[in-house]
Amino acid sequence: MKRALKAFATGFGIGLAFVFAALLVLSYRYRDRLALLVMQKINENIKTRVEVKQVRFTVLRKFPQASLELRDVLVLSPAAYVHDSIVLYNDTLLYARKLYLQFNLFDLLNKRYVISTVHLDKASLHLYVNQQGENNFNVVKESKAPSEGPLRIDLKNVKITRTHVLFYNQYKKLLVSVNSHNSLIKLNLNNEKLSFTLKSDIGLDSIQAGDLTLLAGTEALINGKIQSSEGIHRIEEGEIKLGEQIFAFSGDFSTRDKDGVLMDFRATGKKLNIGGMLSSLPVAMQRRLNLDAEGELFFEATAKGRWNALEYPRIRAQFGIRQGTITRNGITFSQVNTTGYFDNGRGRTLASSTLSLEPFSFQMENEKVNGRVRVVNFNSPAGIAEISASVNLKKINQFFSLPSLSDEEGKINANIKVKFEAGKNKDLSNNQLNITAVSGTLEFLKAGFRWKPFPAKFSDLNGTVEINGMVQLKKFSAKINNNDFFMNLSVVHLFEYLNHKDTLYITGTVSSQYLNYNELTEAFSGKSSAGGALLLPDSVKINLGLSAASFKWDNLLCTGASAKITYLPFRFSVHDASFNALDGKVTGSIVLWQDRQKNLSLSIRSSLNRLSISKLFESFNNFGQNEITDKHLKGMMIGNVDYLSVWNEKGEWLPGKLECFAGIEIVNGQILDCRTLLALARYIDVAELKNLHFATLKNSIYIKDKTVTIPRMDIVSNAIDLNFSGTHTFDNEYEYHIVVALSDVLWGKARKKETAMYGEEGENNRTKLPLIITGKGENYKIGYDRRRAREEFSEKVSREKQEVKTLLHQELGLFAGDTSLAKPPVNVSTQKIRIDWEEETKNPSDTPSSAPATSSQKKKIEVEWDDR
Q1: pTM for this one?
Q2: Are 101 and 154 in contact (CB under 8 A)?
Q3: Which residues of 235-261 are buried (b: 16+ CB within 10 A; e: fewer)?
Q4: Number of other CB atoms surrounding residue 583 within 10 Å
Q5: Tell me: the pLDDT tens digits for 638-649?
Q6: SS3 label, residue 655
Q7: Radius of gyration of the chain (CA)
Q8: How many CA atoms lie within 13 A of 636 on its CB side?
């Protein structure tokens, strides 16, 4: 037995050595012959340049087939295409590290050179279509009849391993990048009928259509059988496996039609699930969606018709989810079910395409959501969505992460129908979703949120909103920051206004327990009314009845307020307004408007009834000055005030534009610790100047050009009788004119009888002493008012002459022909009165309110008449 085995082994070894030697002889014998035939065949049929660096013939590598191994094969793109295209690296059609052409060994022995198998290994294949529709892979020469020769091609197998294939259609902006790990195509040509079976293991680097990237980094297995005959191709048992997702496909294609490809194609999904499909999406999209999902998917689609550059086949698809679960940001949608349909319509275009989800439903904890969606015209998408839901605002926004919402709270019960369309930007691309119409009801239950671009917090939203052509809020309550509202409103053209297509109209009534004007302007403008520009909206018209138990504007606090509010573009008006404030009552109107330069103006016209003057000055910030403030004044005010302020486009208040007229009457007034009046104590020894009382004071105050103007007025007080007038600028420069009785100065008779009415003593012909106080801030001086003295003297002479003239006319009949009763011109005396006070040395510690001085300390007054 051992001898037999040894003999067999020896014989087998000798035979194997003989075969090996024979194969070496064959390799040497056929290498040059086959290489020459192959290169001749290539040159006969390929119309572009082909380079081969090395040729080897081997019998052992592909045994039992012999093979011709071509190394470093380079096939260039057509020269004309290179010049016309702008694609990078398009000069190369194919580079292969190894290209095997396989032959049947017995055919070689019989001198039949037939290529039966092609194996491409470690190659890069670049297929390009340029902007003009020309390609770089049309390299085979046209031949009317097949060429005859010793070398023939009868392919049975095509194998592609470790090869990268790149297809880029610049004209259609389509890019496909694939790595073939191991692909085998088996071919069978029988009576002009070609059939082949494909089995491929590939990696999809990227599929890009325009700006959309699909299936990046996805591994796929492709299997199928294709039969072709006279331009008609049939796909049978086709299957694509993406991970665990399987798609089966089959159908017929015809390329005989010169106008395009005729197809009848069907695709069906098998063993599909949501998680697997999400993993097939591009990584960037997966990160953006940030979804964890489970559940069954189903898919079925057909494509039937002609496909060319201008036409698409009729495409129909049905898809959906069964018992899905989707989780995002810690929020889970369970029991997700939906069925979707797609159809590109009879027109077989994007414009005739429709997509619908009918119906869809899911559950978020104990809250159920149902609805349906339909989208039409993919060129300019528009659609309708119906939804019935009870949603928790915080959870729903946590799931969707809407950037325009924050600080959500409460619930909304919705039963609505929404029409929408895709808005277009300047380059006509669809970049946002616009709501064009809404109908149904929304019930708010303690809801709240912040909505950009407004910084305000909308809270405590309760009530029902009915939407049917217009938006109606019935018994609806809400808060904006600290402002509360109870509303019955009708809003017309809301969604048209949001889409910049029409004017917004708002009518109804609003009541409130507390309103703050500054907070509201800040809430709706995004800028503080005191620290930034306020831009009034256009395309808005409002007509409202407003009542507020409490209303605050800057420092002014009002109660029992009611008014009618109107708004026209860039003009806000409050009319028929009345409210209680400053211990009295105010009626009037307010107008706020904005000009083309974005300057903002505020006009107030008001009627005042027994208001506290100190609170008035405090509420209006002392009208922009600090010499006479709310700390110096007491009393009740009656009168009318017209007020105008202006802010520039930056929201900066313009003091030079401030105008105010106040025609006022002050009853039971007091002036406390007024520096201007206390300055008189240097000449008038009266302690009462620190607390000056008067019964009634009537005058008008003007503010214009940064100057407060006080016309002449008589002040009858407990301390002294004065005639007072003056001006005071916003720069704290002032000039006051005061006229007092000379006797009050000379003999200290400033104290009046403290009667209830503070009446004058019967000294009608007392000599008046006009004084002027000028200064800036703490620095001031007091002097004799010469101009006022001349005016007083001129008026006195004029009056006396008129009295004499009238007396002579009445008693003696003189001046009968004189019909003029006007004052004759008065020649003012050139004599000038000068009053000098010569003071003895005085203790610096003495104050104006100190006790009267002794006779030795009293001022010596010298009156000099200067002839000029």
Answers
A1: 0.59
A2: no
A3: beebebbbeebbbbbbbebbeeeeebb
A4: 14
A5: 989 899 999 888
A6: helix
A7: 51
A8: 9
